[in-house]
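Task 17 of the worksheet. Students: predict the tertiary structure of the chain below and write it out as structure tokens. Keep your answer in the requested format; marks are given for formatting as well as content.
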Amino acid sequence: MDASDYQIIRQLFDDYLRMYSSRDDLLTTHFSEDFSGITGSGDFLVKDRAEWVAITRQDFAQVKDPIRIELKDLAIQSLAETIAVATSAFTIHLPIKDHVLSKKTARLVLIFRKESAGWKISHSSISIPFGMAHDGEVYPLKELEERNLYLEELVVERTTQLSEANKNLQRTNEELLREIAEHKQAEETLRESE
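Model answer:
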């Protein structure tokens, strides 16, 4: 990729981050009519521009105040004269105290296509990991194993607590039944003595 193309794509990427973080609706004009994408927490593909614009506006409505994006890494590639990709890693700082996202590294891939109206974003894919892989792992298996072990121990602990509570309940019920029987016996003895 020559330096001028790199600068153009870098500026487009920087503009995207600036508009996204400032919650600027002008961002929606940068999406191609032929658009696809997937949201950070979504489980479905977005296959048209109108739906992506609606999702972007929902995002902006959900968090109205500006956010801060801390860019950690960026790679820009030219795939063809009319196609470029920007792959980035960053941290999102929401205007909320102690939010979860600031502890995660989000990944964003934007595909830019040069159209008659200029460069447009034809694809956006963002992912936010909720489990981090350790060295030597592709998937966060160690974290999953630790989580499963914790949950298994919690189940054993709660089962023991429930069993103890059931034993106490059984003893209390038996004592109540005995006291009721003694009370009935005392009433019957009292009636017979009258």
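Marker's comment: The longest helix spans residues 141-193. The first strand starts at residue 31 and ends at 38.
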